[in-house]
Amino acid sequence: MVARKPPSRKGSFADVPKDLMDQINRLEELFSVPTQKLKEITTHFQSELTRGLSVEGGTIPMNPTWCMAFPDGYETGTFLALDMGGTNLRVCEITLPEAKGEFEIIQSKYRMPEELKTGTAEELWDYVADCLQQFIEYHHEEEKLDQLPLGFTFSYPATQDYIDHGVLQRWTKGFDIEGVEGKDVVPPFQAALVERGLPIKLTALVNDTTGTLIASAYTDTEMRIGCIFGTGCNAAYMENVGSIPKLSHMNLDPDMPMAINCEWGAFDNEHKVLPRTPYDIIIDKESPRPGQQSFEKMIAGLYLGEIFRLVLVDLHENPDCKIFEGQDISKLKKPYSLDAGFLAQIEEDPFENLSETLDLFQNKLSIAATKPELELIRRLAELIGTRAARLSSCGVAAICKKKGWKTCHVGADGSVFHQYPHFKARGAEALREILDWTEKKDPIEILPSEDGSGVGAALIAALTLKRVQQGNYAGIRDPQAMLQGTKAAKTGQM
């Protein structure tokens, strides 16, 4: 189905004075990404994907995950799944029954305290282990449990020599905990579990994009790419080992599949093609990791509200266009006080007079905006949201072009994809422009995913245990310990 373009508000600028209209025109020029630019970005993106797989590597890490198969729908057993995202921590218990493509899930969600993001490593792993302990005690009070296999969705760039191993390359999503980067996160995590006597054995460390890919493929055989558009942004797809030169020293079967966690948030850290604005440059400069995650800082949910806030503060202080004149904008001056949800509410305002946006600014920021100011606010939100959606499609198009896929499904998860108004439609429109489609039905469709961070992590744990049983130990640190987990999974004793 061809996605419809979002509704237009032509004519709504009739009463906007010239100084504000000049600023709106300037912002449209700054944030618009025309078709030719999208194509230029996609071409560079494609070459960077290939460079990341090379021995020398590149800006995009292109991390091998040691997830080496798609599910066939007949995986069985009971597994735990842990999802450590940027906002929440989620623990799931997932049972894969005999019925093809089915699953049963119980889950609990825990808030990730902000202070943990800049605390100590010990505090982080203690908190995660405490959440797992609460889950076990709540759902299995006084039960004697065998060792439970766990799929841990760790949604941060990590180098994996084994599937139950992950050296953190760098923190993202606002985390900045000292002493973790450059180290394997599994031993301190497992130690925190042992300290509490929890009967849990980490079987697979999974990126959320890989989980999304595998969970989506569980019910859709046309699925080829998994994407996350949420607090951060990333993608995973299945590559042939023969196309990964940096693994050639391992002498693996070149036709063997290997899921690649792209970590494409780092695309164009060298600033060659992305159309960065002065506001993007400020965000990068003032972030915990300047010079990193350039792509992510333009399209991920963590940054959209901050881009919007920086523009409004700049306009307020601009002598040629003083919006919110005579008002106290101290709340607006607080960094990261606005999130992508704030922009989403503005775009969802159904009223011609933008009364909901007026109330939003009054209640959240103590700012009484005039009608012309509200029109500028609305247009700015549209521009930032549209740019994010259009740029996101460059990565999808680049993977498809690299692999020569003319038709496929892309599974997408994340709060921005699911909740931000028109994100899907705007992304689909950009994909059409990049790939020059004229068909009535899009050959490549981006579809909502099936819980990659939960079901996907459990499926990857199941696929790993199945692989060990079959004698394929590639990327397995301790096959015997893994086989003990197989026994626990097969019994289904939870």
Class inferred from helices and paired strands: alpha/beta
N-to-C series of helices and strands: HHEEEEHEEEHEHEEEHHHHHHEHHEHH
* CATH fold-level topology of the domain at 68-219 and 453-491: Nucleotidyltransferase, domain 5
Percent strand: 15-25%
What helical percentage do the residues reach?
40-55%
CATH class of the domain at 68-219 and 453-491: Alpha Beta
Protein name: Phosphotransferase
Family: Belongs to the hexokinase family.
Catalytic activity: a D-hexose + ATP = a D-hexose 6-phosphate + ADP + H(+); D-fructose + ATP = D-fructose 6-phosphate + ADP + H(+)
Pfam families: Hexokinase_1, Hexokinase_2
Tell me about this structure.
- It is built from 15 helices and 13 strands.
- It has 494 residues and is of the alpha/beta class.
- The chain has a domain at 68-219 and 453-491: Nucleotidyltransferase, domain 5.
- It has a 6-stranded mixed beta sheet.
- Helix 14 (452-469) crosses helix 15.
- The longest helix is centred in the C-terminal third of the chain and has 33 residues, at 371-403.
- InterPro entries: ATPase_NBD, Hexokinase, Hexokinase_BS, Hexokinase_C, Hexokinase_N.
- Its EC number is 2.7.1.-.
Task: Jot down its keywords.
494 residues; alpha/beta; Nucleotidyltransferase, domain 5; 5-stranded mixed sheet; 42% helix; 15% strand; globular; disordered N terminus; disordered C terminus; D-glucose binding; nucleotide-binding; fructokinase activity
